[in-house]
Prior knowledge:
mainly alpha; 8 helices
Amino acid sequence: MEGTDPVNKKLAAAVSGGAVLVLALSACTSNSGGTDDKLGSWAKQVCDAVQPQARKIAGASAAIQKQTSDNSTPEQVQKTDSQAFQAMSDAYKAIGAAVDTAGAPDVDNGATKQKNAVKELNGISAAYTDLKKQVDGLDTKDQGKFADGLKGIATQLDKLSKNGSDALKQLEEGDVGKAMAQQQSCKSASPSASTPAASG
């Protein structure tokens, strides 16, 4: 089983990089300055929708990472990765829908920024669907081929995690970021939150 292990570690690292994408939505650094009510309610709507999806993405990422610490068979790795990619695809799609439903934030070029972010989130969702298909199609009977296939998927994931969130970053600039930083649900979705979020 030695063959897939280093590759699977690479995959896990790439996946956790991808999970950071959505957490960019909630990792707003500026807490200062008041925001108007309209922007505040927009931020609350988006943050409340993002929180459960961020948890789903973190859970999928953790499942893949757990596989790397177990001495898993190619079949187990394939099943876990496939389910994780599906969960991530669903989560990004749901976040895209939430940003779409919230409408344009009340800032300059808000409509353009919102539209670009929705398009980007849907694109990320489609990319994870594609990765799921690739994982499902891997040959688990041949250790070497399976490892090579995983390597290719890890490379694509790495790329996805590096250049996937420009429109999201633009959406969160300035006042939007400040408004989101004030939302409890965005704070608790961020990776630095060590206390478990209250259920509700």
